[in-house]
Design goal:
There is one protein chain. By secondary structure, this protein is of the alpha/beta class. It is 31% helix and 19% strand. It has nine helices and ten strands.
Length: 255
């Protein structure tokens, strides 16, 4: 039996402190911030489901930047928010470099946004993410991080198990005008959960839509919605990679 454990981390949105706490809980990171032996050996596989950047609300911007009353139109405030994220992204990049075959990153729409600046992204409360947009007072993501982001996957397939940012449809992995105009990327898991089986998947793991009640496990349609890091949850999948139906167990872990 070729059994491997997959630890899937939901949308980070610059909450690196909670992200590292999840990795510590999963025994995936040591005291130096580097992968533990099971990760280095490939027994544990770590998957980040996308959206590393852009805090979710004004409170988080203030907390991460250290500036009370954070103003998304203030260049000094934007620089502080960008500096914090760049510092933490460098640590995360070093983490992957130490175990490149076991640590995987999916490209989220916010990650794509800081690469291309085609759209102004924001929160439901009207806060715009300007810290990596020079045309709006921010700074460019440094070249070495732009190169790293450009290497992120649109999806990770492990046999018939899919990890993707939004959902099982190929169109969901491209963040264009149609993506932002359509409600399906946010609602498919409620309206058309059969997409997973129609794609001939044994299981799917997705983020993008925040699960305020914690990770959503759909046992009938065989997928998990894992954007639940603010609730201190990550997904643990145990797979037998030699089987046609490889999922041995799927559980949400509260840490």
């Amino acid at each position: 039996m070729a059994t491997r454990k997959f630890i899937a981390i939901g949308d980070v949105h610059a909450d690196f402190e909670t992200m590292w706490a999840a990795l510590r809980s999963a025994s995936c990171v040591d005291a130096s911030g580097l992968p533990t032996p099971p990760v280095r050996q490939g027994l544990y596989q770590v998957v980040f489901i996308g959206d590393l950047v852009h805090p979710k609300n004004a409170h988080d911007y203030a907390r991460f930047s250290g500036i009370e009353g954070f103003d998304p139109d203030n260049e000094d405030h934007l620089f502080a928010a960008a500096r914090y994220q760049v510092r933490e992204l460098d640590k995360l990049r070093a983490y992957q470099d130490a175990a490149p075959g076991s640590v995987h990153f999916i490209l989220g729409n916010h990650d794509d946004g800081v690469l291309h600046h085609r759209y102004v992204l924001g929160t439901s409360g009207g806060l715009t993410h300007n810290e990596f947009d020079p045309e709006r007072g921010g700074v460019l993501l440094p070249d070495h991080l732009r190169h790293w982001f450009s290497s992120f996957l649109r999806e990770l397939r492990v046999g018939r198990v899919q990890f993707a940012h939004v959902g099982p449809l190929p169109a969901f992995a491209f963040y264009d005008d149609l993506f932002y105009a359509d409600s399906a990327p946010k609602r498919w898991w409620q309206d058309t959960p059969e997409y997973v089986m129609m794609a001939d998947l044994a299981y799917g793991v997705y983020g993008h839509t925040q699960m305020h009640g914690g990770i959503h496990l759909d046992e009938q349609s065989r997928f998990a919605m894992i954007d639940a890091l603010p609730g201190r949850e990550y997904l643990e999948l145990l797979l037998d990679t030699e089987q046609h139906d490889p999922v041995l167990s799927a559980r949400a872990v509260l840490f």
